[in-house]
Each structure stands twice: as C-alpha cells, then as structure tokens.
Amino acid sequence: METISVRFEEDFVQEMEKVMKQNRYFTKTEFIREAIRDKVKDLEKQQALLRLEKVYGAGAKKGRKITQEDIHKAGEVVGRALAKKFNINLD
To answer: Which residues of the chain have pLDDT under 70?
Structure first.
C-alpha cells in the first residue's frame, strides 16, 4: 500500500470531522478512501454515459431512428455492467 500525504485547510478539516461524526466514520483515512472510491465510481458512470451518448449520436447520424426505449435499454445494460464491476446487487 502506498502512502500519500495531503494537506487541508483547518476549516475544511473541521467540516470533514463534523460530517465524519454524523456518519459514524472513525478515521479520516476511512472517510477519505471511501470519498475517493465514490468519486472514481461517479467518473466511471460519467464516462459510460458519454459512451452511450456517442452511440446514440452515431446511430442518429447514420439515419437510424433511435427511440427512448432504445436509450433506456442501453442505459440498463450500462448500469448492470457497472453494478457487476463494483459487486453491487441490483435485485
């Protein structure tokens, strides 16, 4: 495991500690790791949606009629793939 040093302003640390207590985080390390994991997941979701938009745009440019149902189905496929990647049970 690699160690990374990070400096925060005192006001930010106090706010972080307040949120940690409200949500039962016992260490800053635990809190920061989970925050970074959540951010990575959010960015991966954004990338998946951008890919989905590209596919939608490519289909529209080729003259194909893409319906809202097609978009919904594609979103479900992307959602299930992300859930599988992150071991999230959707049922």
So the answer is: 55-64, 66
